[in-house]
Write a structure and sequence with these properties.
165 residues; mainly alpha; two-stranded antiparallel ribbon
């Protein structure tokens, strides 16, 4: 039988800035691989050695996911070299907020090559890499948006009116 998750009343097993987290533990667990990846990002959380389990709270789970997905991958795991690094000012889209069906529809729409049976984390990784790789001309996008708002247009209206854009 597999582990059922944290017991009632168990707290997150992590320490942040030297203090033990007081939030309730969820069913996500902390591992050495996660510890290694976040230590490279200079996040100041660590496993509390007195904890008798490895379950973490939803706050730390989301923090770890956002830190791990911040890096832009271009064929290798290192951030240096010729792979472009995302600007700090660029807002990060939290794809974990989307439903699995939405991620699957995105994958199908853009015909992203994947194997069947992916879980949400794998879909977020694949969709996120693709989403971040799409070039956006901000000036054209904003002009198009403002035109649409001012003229009360939606996508179906714009297909009929081919003089725009």
């Amino acid at each position: 039988m597999s582990k059922a998750g944290p017991g009632p009343g168990q707290l997150c097993c992590l320490r942040e800035d030297g203090e033990r987290c007081g939030r309730a533990a969820g069913n996500a667990s902390f591992s050495k691989r996660i510890q290694k990846s976040i230590s490279q990002k200079k996040v100041k959380i660590e496993l509390d050695k007195s904890a008798r389990h490895l379950y973490i709270c939803d706050y730390h789970k989301n923090l770890i996911q956002s830190v791990r997905n911040r890096r832009k991958r271009k064929g290798s795991d290192d951030d240096g070299g010729d792979s472009p690094v995302q600007d700090i000012d660029t807002p990060e889209v939290d794809l974990y907020q989307l439903q699995v069906n939405t991620l699957r529809r995105y994958k199908r729409h853009f015909k992203l090559p994947t194997r069947p049976g992916l879980n949400k984390a794998q879909l977020v990784e694949i969709v996120g890499c693709h989403f971040r790789s799409i070039p956006v001309n901000e000036k054209d996008t904003l002009t198009y948006f403002i035109y649409s708002v001012k003229n009360d247009k939606n996508k179906s209206d714009l297909k009929v009116d081919s003089s725009v854009h």
